[in-house]
Amino acid sequence: MTETIKVAVLGAAGRMGATVCRAVDDADGLELVARLDAGDTVDASSLAGADVAVDFTVPAATEANVHAALDAGAHVVVGTTGWDDASRGRVTEHLERVNAGREDGLGVLIAPNFGLSAVLAMTFAAKAARYFESAEVIELHHPDKVDAPSGTARHTAAAIARARAEAGLQAMPDATESGVEARGADVDGVRVHAVRLRGLVAHEEILFGNVGEQLVIRQDSFDRASFMPGVLLAVREVVSRPGLTVGLENVLDLS
């Protein structure tokens, strides 16, 4: 698509949504045509002819928003977390239905994190996972975040687990017999710990350990503006990627 891409932002009154609106307004080749927030209906009329709807709402609303945007004929970029295999599967099925017979299929891109440093950290973690006996993830966010662990941490842990499984590694050593709840969430066999602290924005540490050595990969996002290059990249890419794409790493050249 070489013409101007028309963009609607869902969750436009929120911190991330407002930042996305400013970024789209300032970007070449993009036009902000609609700002929607809680209480607004998502349909062809409210989306105002948008080519791409960008969703930064809340986990309870995001899946319904995606289905509504697809029904209105818009591609969708999703930054809201709270997705699981079942909800992603429903979106895949919906895409198959709406794209049947279309030459220019609609696309949905769900990214647990749009920060380039976060995407690189997740990619490096997946590459390192096969070489270490132990791995754990710590995610740190502001206390206004409603879900835990974060989508980024779940995505990271799942990638670590896949890499370990492909390498034929056994379960990680852990002799804990009491106080198991203090060990954090179990994401595909990888422990994930969530910190909520005033003053933080979005941060992640991935810890790997072997006998006598440790590798720590840390990523810090100090300002929501750091997510905007990734959001704008996703908006430009989703229009040429029919179907469901999960993870910004899939539109970056990280080979």
UniProtKB/TrEMBL annotation:
Domain Dihydrodipicolinate reductase C-terminal: 118-252
Pathways per UniProt: Amino-acid biosynthesis; L-lysine biosynthesis via DAP pathway; (S)-tetrahydrodipicolinate from L-aspartate: step 4/4
Start and end residues of each Dihydrodipicolinate reductase N-terminal domain: 5-114
Catalysed reactions, as listed in the record: (S)-2,3,4,5-tetrahydrodipicolinate + NAD(+) + H2O = (2S,4S)-4-hydroxy-2,3,4,5-tetrahydrodipicolinate + NADH + H(+); (S)-2,3,4,5-tetrahydrodipicolinate + NADP(+) + H2O = (2S,4S)-4-hydroxy-2,3,4,5-tetrahydrodipicolinate + NADPH + H(+)
GO molecular function: 4-hydroxy-tetrahydrodipicolinate reductase; NAD binding; NADP binding; oxidoreductase activity, acting on CH or CH2 groups, NAD or NADP as acceptor
Matches recorded under Gene3D superfamilies: Dihydrodipicolinate Reductase, domain 2, NAD(P)-binding Rossmann-like Domain
Residues at which (S)-2,3,4,5-tetrahydrodipicolinate binds: 142, 151-152
Major localisation: cytoplasm
Gene Ontology cellular component list: cytosol
Entry EC no(s): 1.17.1.8
Keyword NADP applies: yes
Cellular location(s): Cytoplasm
InterPro entries: DapB_C, DapB_N, DapB_N_CS, DHDPR_bac, NAD(P)-bd_dom_sf
Record-level GO BP terms: diaminopimelate biosynthetic process; lysine biosynthetic process via diaminopimelate
UniProt keyword list: Amino-acid biosynthesis, Cytoplasm, Diaminopimelate biosynthesis, Lysine biosynthesis, NAD, NADP, Oxidoreductase
Enzyme class: oxidoreductase
Active-site residues, record numbering mapped to chain: 141 (proton donor/acceptor), 145 (proton donor)
Amino acids binding NAD(+): 11-16, 79-81, 111-114
Record function comment: Catalyzes the conversion of 4-hydroxy-tetrahydrodipicolinate (HTPA) to tetrahydrodipicolinate.
Family membership noted in the UniProt record: Belongs to the DapB family.
Subunit structure: Homotetramer.
Name the record gives this protein: 4-hydroxy-tetrahydrodipicolinate reductase
